[in-house]
Amino acid sequence: MKRSNLPCSTFIALALLLSCLSYLISIPKAEAKLLDKIMAVFDDKIITLSEVNQIKSNATIRKQIAPQIYYFNDFSPQEVVASITQTLLIRGALGDSGIIISDNHVESEIKSTEKRLQLDRESLLTLLHNSNTSFEEYFEITRAAIEYDAFKSIILTPLISITEQNIKNTFYKQYSSKQTLSFRYDLIAYSIEKSKLNSNQANNLKDAVSQYQKNGLLPEELRDLSVTDLGNISEDGLTPEMVALLKNSDEGSISDPIVVHGQYQLFFIKSKNLVESDIYLKNKERIERELFEKEAQQVLIAWLEREKQKHFIEYFFETLSK
Known about the structure:
Triger factor/SurA peptide-binding fold, disordered N terminus, alpha+beta, 15% strand
């Protein structure tokens, strides 16, 4: 059970829950079977089984209206309750920021949808009826979708950072098998005689050079390490072995060591730029979008977990992770 830092919310929810349980105990068993089952409590809101079942019954249209909320397939009780909780948390966060999605805003969005789909209100109501959805439900689903988009833009996006280097490194990995790609590098080379290192020291060479990059300190066995700034260089100025090594190394990283003329050599890749830049530019926007959505999901999960700690939330089915 996750307890609120706000005692008032906790006491209200507990009182409400105890009141419901007391009432259930006081009535005959046959009559109790007719009562709705409590699936979860969020502060002073009770989420019931009938509410969960209704959401599942019109899952298809919910996925069409708000795929950013109803992205799951099974619509299990756990997933549905999680979606309700998420909507409440997002609505609360927007409210704290002074953002309220009004009825007029929702109505305006619905009218825009009608215009886009060339539907009048009567046709829309017929479509909703055939999808087991009331207009009131549709109205609130639309509100939740607008709230999610506002939340993503105002609260979530500032927490996400996709750098040019992230995009480049992803592109290189996706296209590493294409031999037509050619690069220019800005390199710093590190080298040391192979005979001066035992096997254990050789295995730790990359880590040692990486630490040297950060703090300027070298272990005693690397006192003879040579450092050479190769500057900006094309693949034409590198051996085939170096080309293969660097193609599989990320910008901003240190390559694995190779042996060249009796020396261990490894490289810090200050920059790695595609010569045929049109290939990169054609894919940059797609890659950035994919990276953003992937990180957005991770940031959202972490954000939801933090926000849950501020509320009283209790679940009434065993398999839901609290």
